Amino acid sequence: MSAVVVGAGLGGLAVAARLAAGGHDVTVLEQADRVGGKLGTLEVGGYRFDTGPSLVTMPPVLERLFAETGAPLREVLDLQHLDVAAQYRFGDGTTLDLPGARSDIPDALDKALGPGTGGQWSAFLAHAERVWHATHEHFLESPVSPAGLARLSLRVRDLRAVAPWRSLRGVGARYLRDERLGMLLDRYATYSGSDPRRAPAALAVVPYVEQEFGSWYVRGGLRGLVTAVADRCRALGVTVRTGARVASVDVRDGRAAGVRLASGERLGADVVVANADAATVYGPGGLLPHRPSARRLARTTPSSSGFVLLLGLAGRDPATPHHRVLFPPTRAAYDAEFDAYRAGRPASSPAVYVHAPDDPALRPDDDSETWFVLVTAPRHDPGGGVDWDAPGLAARYADRVLALMAQRGVDVRDRIRHRVVRTPADLERETLSPGGSIYGTSSDGALAAFLRPANRSPVEGLYLVGGSAHPGGGLPLVTLSAEITARLVCERTSGL
Ligand SMILES: Cc1cc2nc3c(=O)[nH]c(=O)nc-3n(C[C@H](O)[C@H](O)[C@H](O)COP(=O)(O)OP(=O)(O)OC[C@H]3O[C@@H](n4cnc5c(N)ncnc54)[C@H](O)[C@@H]3O)c2cc1C
Questions:
Q1: Of all atoms in ligand 1, which is nearest to the CA of residue 226?
Q2: Dist. CA 433 → ligand 1 center (Å)
Q3: Is the ipTM of this complex over 0.95?
Q4: 210-222 pLDDT, tens per residue?
Q5: Is residue 89 included in any domain, yes or no?
Q6: Quick one: 305 and 244 in the same domain?
């Protein structure tokens, strides 16, 4: 069986490796001049930056990918567990170093935020654990199918706590009386580009998996992950072509029969797997001659994007936290941030996330630090929202973010040797994700997870993989989507 994969993001490469390991003949076509999609990298003056992800969660999913396609993960990547998952700074001046081991969290909370907060969080996590056990097998690790949903609903019915009508904020309120714990929970909604007031209560599994499976870092930078998967593909005989933009999927007699490149070249295949954003597959002017899932997609909300500062800093403090979140002063101010994204404007006082790995491979010398600073941002939408290419906007917003950091106790403005600003428009140009949306569609709304495009398209022989398809965005879910899609393709081909 021959397969063409459109896009060499983590999802596309992971499905290619799995299909090749299953004995199939696989070609990956990537429009950019290098593989990796959102797992980008940039080098400036000896500083090496990851431009995309900075946090690895659920390593068992990655371990399965490597083990099932060749040498195990530990032989190809140096995955490091973080003893402190992240440092959180709140508007009232408290600082919380959240331990990387779940068992240590209650004590740390009691000490940092006050007696009783550890118990509140533990009760919430126990709830989240029940949601995880009820949903992961029949939803996160399965294709969306009527049979799977029926099994899921049977289990969920037993679990009044899942409360699909409730929001993540709503379920948090049942356990977390401390406002700072509420903000901590709200933050996890942003892992899927969502608003905690609209995201479903089932997103409680996000903090659960982070705290149960730990927070991890790839030594040498997270870009190493996608390089390792690309190497695995090549070792398995996959043809990986860069600079190869696919213009359309050829559909003959209702079945996907291959692709046509922008250059005019045609490639026939038994199966086409799209790792390109689902909106560019099914949306107007997309890869398909007709739009079988357009109505479903139209009911979803695109996820938010990110505004990134890459900072090459002079000087080094070995105590700099690996991950740090600087919250807005109050929860009302945090809500104003979510309101701003909904209204399509940059927030004036957003939460600021800083990734500062203590990794010699990323810095020019031992007296320097490489920082990645991220704030959630509305998508690039010159037609009616923010035009991130408007002259001066990116530089002004970067200054604003640096000033906010200073107000919140982290002033690095006089240490900056190199500063690179990356906007949602840059992300859109590089990966063709509409508006620079990070996670495809957001999880806002009770039905969002079920409206996300399925891994098997209504067009026979066409499959979807990656963050904009089921089960969603972020490295573990994208890797799971490759697992599901490869399984579906292999089931189909074994029946041919
Ligand atoms: C700033 C930022 C921070 C993030 N932080 C985290 C984090 O800490 N932890 C985490 O787990 N996740 C994080 N993510 C999300 C994570 O990076 C993504 O979910 C994941 O990398 C998406 O992989 P993908 O394969 O679905 O898509 P992509 O990486 O977007 O890959 C799709 C590929 O398809 C190619 N393509 C598109 N159209 C075509 C076409 N027509 N022809 C040929 N090729 C095409 C694109 O060029 C791209 O290479 C972050 C993302 C960003 C941008």
A1: 21
A2: 8
A3: yes
A4: 999 999 999 999 9
A5: no
A6: no
